[in-house]
Amino acid sequence: ELIQDTSRPPLEYVKGVPLIKYFAEALGPLQSFRARPDDLLISTYPKSGTTWVSQILDMIYQGGDLEKCRRAPIFMRVPFLEFKVPGIPSGMETLKDTPAPRLLKTHLPLALLPQTLLDQKVKVRLGPLPLQVFYVDVAVSYYHFYLMAKVHPDPGTWDSFLEKFMAGEVSYGSWYQHVQEWWELSHTHPVLLPLLRRHERASAPQNPKREIRKILEFVGRSLPEETVDLMVQHTSFKEMKKDPMANYTTVPQELMDHSISPFMRKGMAGDWKTTFTVAQNECFDADYAEKMAGCSLSFRSEL
Ligand SMILES: *[C@@H]1O[C@H](CO)[C@@H](O)[C@H](O)[C@H]1NC(C)=O
Asked: Which UniProt keywords apply (predicted)?
């Protein structure tokens, strides 16, 4: 019955940003959060490779020890700051049991981010930058996520969801604004940008070893070559999909229904091609060009 009540509440607007109702409610308690200079924040728009980067960073912090990485589900190992859903420990609760140095996750836009993270100059690993080919996959992936995760409102048809997505009327608001403002932050803060190429997807880049090395360097650690190879293997999409500590199947089915669409769905770029109609694609391209016109990264094909 509790779950019945919690299913598909409308989004709530906070400072103009639409959010999952429960996450909006978590922002008050989040004010008491205090960042530490040795925290590391993984900041992404939803469906942009967050779990993959979280898994890599946890493996690095555990010295490549697989058993230690199986100690708890990914959302317990890497507290999700604004997370709050009835019946599951909130991000703030999870934080209490998280020893430093901590890995933290957020999808919040800067307007809603606790200022303490910026004051402490916490290192930030960002999600993929505004690569257009990637962005269309985010839209498709987000639609499937709305379908299976019932803390979101009903997404409606793909066409109506796409309209809402382009207008920034989905949870966490505008993708365009999110990536642009976090990119701006990289000029003044210690921010690591991902090294995605044009046709790569964040959760399964073609050169994961290069990305893992970059992350190691960013966090000032080193691991033996064999350990890095093991990490490449263990953080592959195929492995993570069948890892119950990474694939979100420990979440009650009432909240995430993997039979509708698994959390770890495809892990590849180009899925949009089978979803977008020609008309949707044209409309989308025009909208993208307009919204990203002022962004220095918008049309780079490779980073
Ligand atoms: C998650 O992992 C478990 C354990 O390997 C597996 O049985 C299940 O099929 C996976 N779930 C999804 C949705 O991929």
From this structure: Cytoplasm, Transferase
Higher pLDDT, 111 or 137: 111
Pocket mutation for ligand 1, best pick of 241, 261, 264 (most atoms within 8 Å of C-beta): 241
Instruction: Determine the Cα–Cα distance for residues 148 and 217; give it in Å rounded to an integer.
Output: 36
C-alpha 260 – ligand 1 centre gap (Å): 14
Would the CB of 244 count as within 6 Å of ligand 1? yes
Q: Which CATH architecture has domain 11-292?
A: 3-Layer(aba) Sandwich (3.40)
pLDDT in tens, 149-199: 999 999 999 999 999 999 999 999 999 899 889 888 988 999 887 765 555
Nearest to 170 by CA among 46, 257, 280: 46
For the CA of 263, the nearest atom of ligand 1: 13
Residue-wise pLDDT for 135-163, tens only, equals 677 888 899 999 999 999 999 999 999 99
What are the residue ranges spanned by the domains of the chain?
Answer: 11-292
Q: Residue 177 C-alpha to ligand 1 middle, in angstroms? A: 34
Mean pLDDT over the full length of the chain: 87
Which of these is catalytic: 107, 144, 152, 178? 107
d(CA 45, CA 111): 14
pTM recorded for the entire structure: 0.91
Please give the DSSP secondary-structure letter assigned to residue 193.
P
107 is catalytic: yes
Q: CA 125, CA 50: separation in Å to the nearest integer? A: 10
The answer to whether 20 and 151 have CB atoms below 8 angstroms apart is yes
